[in-house]
Amino acid sequence: MTVMELTSADPERIRDQLAGKLSQSPAFFQHTPVVLSVEKLDEPHLALERICAVCRAHKLLPVAVRGGPEPVKQSAWALGLGWFPPQEAARPRPLESVAPGEAESAADAAAEIEAPPGVSSGGRIYRGTVRSGQQVTSPEGDLVVVGSVNAGAEVLAAGSVHVYGALRGRALAGIHGDPLAGIFCRELHAELLSVAGNYKRLEDIDPCLLGTTVQVRLEGDQLGITPLA
Amino acid sequence: MAKIIVVTSGKGGVGKTTSAAAIATGLALRGNKTVVIDFDVGLRNLDLIMGCERRVVYDLVNVIQGEAGLSQALIRDKRVDNLHILPASQTRDKDALSQEGVEKVLETLGKDFDYILCDSPAGIERGAQLAMYFADEAIVVTNPEVSSVRDSDRILGLLASKTRRAERGEEPIKEHLLITRYNPGRVDSGDMLNLDDIREILAIDLIGLIPESEAVLRASNQGVPVTHDADSDAGQAYTDTVARLLGEDVPLRFHEYQKKSLLSRMFGGGRR
Description:
The structure holds two protein chains of two kinds.
Chain A: E1 2-5, H1 11-24, E2 32-37, H2 48-57, E3 60-66, H3 70-78, E4 82-84, H4 106-112, E5 124-127, E6 135-138, E7 143-146, E8 154-157, E9 161-167, E10 170-173, E11 183-188, E12 192-195, E13 198-201, E14 214-219, E15 222-227
Parallel strand pairs in A: 1-2, 2-3, 3-4, 5-7, 6-8, 7-9, 8-10, 9-11, 10-12
Antiparallel strand pairs in A: 11-14, 12-13, 14-15
Chain B: E1 3-8, H1 16-29, E2 34-38, H2 46-49, H3 60-64, H4 70-73, E3 75-76, E4 83-86, H5 99-112, E5 115-119, H6 126-133, E6 137-142, H7 146-159, H8 164-167, E7 174-182, H9 184-188, H10 195-202, E8 205-211, H11 214-222, H12 233-245, H13 262-267
Parallel strand pairs in B: 1-5, 1-6, 2-4, 2-5, 6-7, 7-8
Antiparallel strand pairs in B: 3-4
């Protein structure tokens, strides 16, 4: 479950910060259920109803509140939300008012990568083998690899990932949430495929497709892998 | 100026030191003035493989720290005239090496020698990075095994980014693949990775293929580089490797399983 850590009780500030996040990773805000954590706040009363309205306006569905004093707990219940006790020994993570936490999904990883300002443009062409431990990123557009991506390597792109060789490592397309991005490769052996945060591990890939030329697209909230003739 | 060749692999126990000793011996036997340096500070082994452990007085760390001169630390090989060994220190660790110190040693050796072989420690940390930093060529030692191939792949990535040639944007290091412990029988039965699969993944030139051989273990324990064992398959394979390193075109040997049955001939020939 995604946890949204509130560092401000002011609905207007929350609205501004959510709007900023939304432009970075639109895919993250698709009626995602979130837990509002108010542990970091020291406010006896919260305008919880207004905060929830702000969240819903940004396609986030608050389902519960974590932490806070007794009145907060009562108002959460009154709004039909669940309430969790605060987490002991809060982990020392960098404070951000909207922090995707807990869920170690690729969606979160994607959301944490800073989006460049401006429109997606300007791809990147990499010639040669992407070797284990190397990471090749195209933060603004497509990534074309003329060569293979070996196991333990990672290729990422804001747009689509094209590999004119064997894909044995990890490929992440649409890292800023572009659901129309795709992954294309000559020979599929990928450790991980991800489009806009929706991922498939090697284990989840139909063995029949391994070693073949394929394209990977987001179909609904599932990755579809289809052979390319 | 000498050619600096690093023998590296990432993974331990694949045969770096054995290969460094055998190739250095082969180069010297072919008349090249050669020195082989043990960069595995703290886990000194090269002197054992070269059979000169009783003659070690000073080592690489002593030279770098100015406690001994290079000529005092260099050990002349008993068997081949123009072969020298610069041993590592057993009592220190990799932090005793400095980049400037290594550079100075290599520069000084470069004036007198044709080939400088750097026997890298396993891993990708300081020792391994210093061993490869100044290299002109690299011999990446790989066993026919997935973990070894992956580690070699990682090392190839570092060779292309964390070396002087890469940092200065000069012509990249010439990378050679040396496959050791190759057992064609076990490759045929699927226990070991196939030569072509390794070459496809690593995508670099094959400089040699050393068959799994009893001669290698015997040579290590006797302290005689296996190149001297001219009757052994491994000895011959290293001699071939050296010839290729010197630019000769030598056909590949020892990569095919000899005792093939008729059935496997009929059904196993599809790959290649």
